Amino acid sequence: MNIRSIKFSQDHNVEFYKELKKRVNTYFKTNQLSKFGNTNMVVKTIFMVALYIVPYVLILTIAEQAWFALLLWAVAGFGMAGIGLSVMHDANHGSYSKYGFINKSLGYLANMVGGSDLNWRIQHNVLHHTYTNVDGMDEDIDVDGLMRFSPNQKRLKAHRYQHVYAWFLYGLLTINWFFRKDYQQISRYKKMGLLATQNISFRRALSIIVFTKLLYAFLMIALPIWVAPSAWYISLIGFFLMQFIAGFVLSVIFQSAHVVPSSNFPTPNESGDIHADWAVNQLYNTANFAPKARILSWYVGGLNFQVEHHLFPNICHVHYKDISKIVKQTAIEYNLPYYSYATFFGAIKDHTKLLKNLGKYDNAPGIHH
């Protein structure tokens, strides 16, 4: 299916999003609030970057004992995930600040943690946010057959156990980005014509990816092995421990919001039409979790309010909890779903059930249609 051939319905509850945007805009205007980040966002940025950098400096300088060094690597893993969820994510959506250069600068943090800000914007902003849960378009549900995230994907014998091995694969997310996926993506995006959406040539994009990954490999692998007071193999084990923690956290947060039984995994017809307005499709395929868990919400960048994020990616996450009341009420008025799990555990539990059903049955009973 060509990306330009997919079209969302123009006559399926299109009034919902018009009214919702009007109400949300009124909220910000009435309360004289900016849609961008605030002082709390700056404090969070400093904390998350420090959670990543400070352990790294200690690893290079004073962490002689193996247990202490590995503990620091683990803390850096949570800092790495925190940067991705709470800082880089908003910046690459352009919602961190009203100043473009600040968004661009903080968006480069993706490269600082071994990824690619360019690929992230295309995969996440362009594909995932536009074609949420559409097989063949949304790369968040495409893992090269290792797992079956959608009933529209082919079921393999190994998938019968995916609800068991998924948790290990989730931890390999950022390692995969670093060593393989970013190179595959940049080549694929060239063929799809998506590099033009970021105003960059393939040659320049590839050069930036190679350079930043070599620099990252030197700083996070070679330098610790060379100068850290702990044994060289502790640094190597620690690096993979950091990556595993970050990958696991990122995977669980995103998959628990989209690969759940309430999702309907839309299938375009032969003409490429999806029987739903774009905003309505977001409601059909997105779920919140733990809306009252303040500490969790703070750490994951408000992405427990995934519905609000998908409907308003241009609004900083510090506002999601407040506008969630408006979103929920408007959805109810228009007879549309507003999926939300009371707890994070509840979302993970249902995600696991769906993985099991997708691995066991072709039609995966339990999926909302």
UniProtKB/TrEMBL annotation:
PANTHER family: DELTA(5) FATTY ACID DESATURASE C-RELATED, FATTY ACID DESATURASE 2
Biological processes per GO annotation: lipid biosynthetic process
Positions of transmembrane segments: 41-59, 66-88, 164-180, 201-226, 232-254
Keyword Transmembrane helix: yes
Record key words, sorted: Membrane, Transmembrane, Transmembrane helix
GO cellular component, one term: membrane
A matching Pfam family: FA_desaturase
Record has Transmembrane as a keyword: yes
Database matches in CDD domains: Delta6-FADS-like
Domain Fatty acid desaturase: 66-341
Protein name: Acyl-CoA desaturase
InterPro entries in the record: FA_desaturase_dom, Fatty_acid_desaturase
Source organism superkingdom: Bacteria
GO molecular function: oxidoreductase activity, acting on paired donors, with oxidation of a pair of donors resulting in the reduction of molecular oxygen to two molecules of water
